[in-house]
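RESIDUES AND SHAPES:
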Amino acid sequence: METFLMQFGGDQSLISILYFVLLIVFFFFYPRLLVTQIMWKLEKTAKDMEDMSASTKRFITKTITSKPTKELKESVNRFFEFFVITPVALDPYGIVRKFDHVIQNEKERFSYFAGQVAPKLDKEKRANLEMGLAGGIALHELSKIIRHYVELVRKTKSYQIAMILQMQMPLIERIAKSLYVGSKALARGEPVGDGLGPLVVADMMGKKTAREIEEDIIAASVKVEGRNVFLVKAKGPGGRIGRPGKAIEKLAGNHKIVRIITIDAAAKLEGEKTGSVAEGVGVAMGGPGVDRSYIEDVIVKRNIPIDSIIVKMSPEEAIMPMRKAVKDAIPAVKESIKRSLARTKKGDNIIILGVGNTSGVGNSARAANDVRAWVDKHERKLQQMKKAKKRKKGLMDNLEMEEN
């Protein structure tokens, strides 16, 4: 540029002034250009999430009836704005009971709404509807939060906020997509990754008849390795979680329990294999911690050892339809259970708790076999779709090569 300016009689001072002006323009306008570029991507992502939320609403509405009325659509739209305010934790005394009270109120509201808008659905399908609504509300809330920050960046032109949001967006998109797929799977009553614990327990129940011992929690007594084992899970095949903490309290109060084994899905670290099994101690259970607290109170009061068996999967895989790698972990989980039982004596009373959402998972070994067949069929469908995408991509690449 210097040579170019010198040809037209420019001197060094003019060049310095020009560079100074360009530097000022760069400092003033470059951040705005970056914000504009980032905003284009953020706006697209926010729109995609809002579309997914709207699609979930339509799907849930169609689940209730194939010909939804205007009043039904308005009711679903209203319920998607449902929220829960957590209790005050300034004074931690009694916080568990406060959380329990709020959670039960939330569950009652979901049950009431499902019964109001879908009175003709049976109990299992209504439970699936409640789970689908919960997932849809989470997705709707996420889309609103993203829209809030996009509009905030638009109004303030804040480069810093835009960059923070852009850096977090890949993780947010993963969560949004899993909620989108998971909400529909739960509304349809399909098994999800989080149902691994109940699936193992159902498989061990065989033909035993289970009875409901607590709200939405069933138990069956079987003999395993010479031990008296109480198999506990949420009642299926509708989507439920139940109150396992209260169920463990009752069983421990009525029987001399010498060991408790909990089985649950757990978030894997990136690089770990989906379906890998790990053993440990403590209550393997997610959520707000209410039921976990109840179980911990029981084991401390009665000095009961507790083992945990986890099957690793990503948070997204936990709420999406169950994958074959997760289902194939059942034999490894049973081997872990045998190792845990080996630390007890024959004739001892043991509790095995399958923690998780029992969507699509019934209450017998036959129901567990049905889940296995469904997962295998679903996996084949996913692999066929994957191959079809690869073939399409290969064809496009070939066309581009021919054109060039």
In short: The chain has 13 helices and seven strands. The longest strand covers residues 257-267.
